[in-house]
From TrEMBL:
GO terms for molecular function: hydrolase activity. Keywords: Hydrolase. Pfam families: Hydrolase_4 (PF12146). Residues 48-241 form the Serine aminopeptidase S33 domain. Gene3D superfamilies: alpha/beta hydrolase. Transmembrane segments: none annotated. This is Alpha/beta fold hydrolase. The keyword Hydrolase applies. Belongs to the AB hydrolase superfamily.
């Protein structure tokens, strides 16, 4: 793979409901490569800037890359307080990711389109009508925070933190004050409550009459999916990844579990794969998948996801 210079520019784009989102485009200097346009979807409560070094790396290899913040977060946070902001998790997919797809396709209409989704960012595409235009997906620790799927060693602590303390604080403040606690970013109340009270079936969080349509949208996605997690990811466990992948039943899906030692580290966890110490290892492998559809970890604990 040949590296190129990269230019970065701030961008804004609008959603169908009028909300304007902020982000950045990372543009490679050399056009005409076969590298796809890439959208990076953040984890819940994580700023888009966390992924900018990874985005720049992909752009160095020829991919234009869009990073953006979901509504209520970072550069897409409205002025003033989040108190009382009725933003559901679902809107990040139905509205925000859908708008990101439209913006990306307008930027590079002749390129294939790939998505890198971290944590909830690997689940949100299924909510969006525009996800049918995605050609390939890489998910990293993708799950929707059903508490029984947390790693057994961490389950009690995570349950207390995210499913007891978070909804209590959200009720008190009118939003989740994550930043002042050092627990990720502030979250809109709707997102925090959905995370806290999510049931085993994701669609159970929504009105009964809408559930079939939610499932249908996920099934309409045809992009091949490589779902990656590390064996020490306390959120992205095999059970959590499988629960997510079952919704994408129209896609060719495979799951890969990577041992931290295989990547040269003792621990990695849920967030570590986007640190730039993985530039010459994991990052390079993801580029092989995004550009060529080649699984770079064929000897890892991989199996085809069951429908």
């Amino acid at each position: 793979m040949t590296s190129t210079e990269v230019t970065t520019r701030p961008v804004t784009f609008g959603c169908r409901d009028g909300v304007v989102l902020g982000g950045h485009m990372f543009d490679p200097a050399i056009a005409g490569t076969d590298a796809p346009m890439v959208i990076v979807n953040c984890a819940t409560g994580v700023l888009a800037r966390y992924y900018q070094r990874y985005a720049r790396y992909l752009a160095e290899l020829g991919s234009p890359v869009l990073t953006y913040d979901y509504r209520g977060i970072g550069e897409s946070r409205p002025p003033g307080t989040l108190r009382g902001a009725a933003i559901p998790w679902r809107a990040w997919g139905e509205q925000d990711f859908d708008a990101a797809v439209a913006f990306a396709r307008a930027q590079e209409p002749n390129r294939s389109l790939a998505v890198v989704g971290h944590s909830i960012g690997g689940f949100l595409p299924g909510f969006a009508a525009g996800a049918v235009h995605v050609d390939r997906m890489l998910t990293v620790g993708a799950q929707y925070a059903y508490w029984r799927d947390y790693a057994r060693r961490s389950r009690v602590g995570l349950l207390a933190k995210w499913h007891l303390a978070m909804p209590a604080l959200t009720a008190a403040y009118g939003y989740f004050p994550g930043r002042r606690l050092g627990w990720l970013e502030d979250l809109p109340a709707g997102v925090a409550r959905e995370w806290a009270f999510r049931r085993a079936a994701m669609e159970s969080s929504y009105p009964r009459g809408e559930r079939a349509e939610v499932r249908r949208r996920f099934a309409a996605v045809r992009a091949p999916i490589l779902a990656v997690a590390t064996t020490d990811d306390e959120f992205g466990t095999p059970a959590a990844l499988e629960r997510t992948l079952r919704y994408y039943r129209g896609s060719d899906r495979a799951r890969v579990e990577l041992q931290p030692e295989r990547l040269g580290h003792n621990t990695i966890g849920h967030f570590g794969l986007f640190h730039d110490r993985h530039r010459d290892g994991f990052w390079r492998g993801t580029a092989e998948w995004l550009t060529h559809g080649v699984n770079p970890w064929p000897t890892a604990a991989e199996r085809r996801a069951e429908i």
